[in-house]
What does this fold into?
Amino acid sequence: MTRGFRLAAASGLHRGDRPYQQDQVMMIGHPHAKGCLLAVVADGMGGRSGGRKASDQVLMTARQLFAKYSPETDSASQLLKQVVEDAHTVIKLTAVSAEQEPHSTVAAFVMNPRGECTWIHVGDSRIYQFRNGRLVKRTLDHSYVQALVDRGEITEDQMDEHPQSHILLGCLGMSTTQPPIDIHTIDHLRPGDAIMACSDGLWHYFTPEEMGALIAERNPRESVELLIEEARTRARGTGDNISVAILKLEPLPKGQG
It folds into this structure.
């Protein structure tokens, strides 16, 4: 628990109808440092088993490295960067030995006991920061349509309907280049802040305003369940797999803290 407010965290997973993509999510507390936690979303791609192997590797690598992490002496940015680099290397080796083409996106964040939060992402799995329901910042996808937005050729509202919205420019397991790595640190989270990591199977169906309002009104567990349920409804049976992890900082009840 961070001084002055309490943490409320939840993660959830829904298996969609597409067998070639395997989302996974993990949210764990540090084995030795109270108030320190790690959340990871990995969206695997590449054949019926290749995608699952890729996302498995991301979560396994993250769990192993987090167990060795010390929030007092180690850099959260370096931890997350190593997770991405190590998982990328092993996924590439898996591709050679298994004659598959496994790939994975990743969106991960570390919350430290002092209230600092650091995130990293590769691909089109996203991280959002909300404050009292309003969007503060989100990651920008490593995708073809995001590049079009950056160049001013389409608007952000046109991204989801673009016929090439599924094309990624960066992910783990790429054979020709290293995955792009974007890292961001929030110096101090406040009561009312929420951090959400999710796969494209979720964010595709909501505006940031819708997600922020729901998360502000509900606890993380309820938010995860309602977002997954509504995404399935809006997808009308055609949706992707869904992974989502939400961390929310809530003020302590009066008389505590």
